[in-house]
Amino acid sequence: MSRDDNPNVTLGEQATQRAGQLTASLPAHLAAVRDRLTQRFGDAAEGDANGLEALADRDELTMVTSPSQLVEVLRFCRDDELLSCELLSDLSGVHWPGGRLEADVEETTGWPTYASQRPGTIDVDYLLTSITQGHRFRVRVSVPDVEPRVPTAVEVYRSARYMERECYDFFGVAFEGHDHLERILMPEDWVGHPHRKDYPLGGVEVQYEGATIPPPDERDY
Q1: Contact, 163 vs 144, CB < 8 A?
Q2: Is there a contact between 151 and 176 (Cβ–Cβ < 8 Å)?
Q3: What is the reported pLDDT for 110?
Q4: Domain locations in the chain as residue ranges
Q5: CA pair distance 163, 153, nearest whole angstrom
Q6: Could you give the angle at the alpha carbon of 18 between the alpha carbons of 60 and 137, nearest 5°?
Q7: Dmax of the chain from CA atoms?
Q8: What angle is formed at CA 19 by the lines to CA 35 and CA 82, rounded to 5 degrees?
Q9: Is 11-188 in CATH node 3.30.460.80?
Q10: 157 partner at 20 to 30 Å CA-CA among 27, 75, 210, 216?
Q11: Helix or strand or coil: residue 164?
């Protein structure tokens, strides 16, 4: 029986085992992108404290960097001949709330439930596309969800000017150096950021055909 088939191996251990397999199974063109970036900035997997972390899953590549070198990484992705990422296709966020995280008991071993505390974070993803080379991948930075701050990428990609406003609007990420960081979809006096997972699941009353429809959390279904 292999370790992957062994029911006594925890999910966390299996995920660790598969991490190298996932990275190794990247398509050749994305493996070349990964190697080019880690050659230039260092590889966190090899113990480089300032290196990039490569994540791979379902033939997709994500390169994780720090906010302090984000702009430098983006500029290199744009200007390097091998990478040639002319287009910032998208900029989005993912909120991971902090708090108590529990790993369920393992039925096969009887090991108890393990609990830990994790801080809240927001991942900011930059989806880069090379029209010349025909590849696409993500560059990611993770910041605390309390007063999250990331340097603006507008000097590298002008299209980031509007995408950063949307991320600020929905996640509350402040892009330092942005010359017009205001809400872009929600009213300027709106309280909170609707795409954060700690945002209340409610709504607003809606006027429709002379009647008032209450918020979703107040309706009688």
Answers
A1: no
A2: yes
A3: 65
A4: 11-188
A5: 10
A6: 15
A7: 68
A8: 15
A9: yes
A10: 27
A11: helix
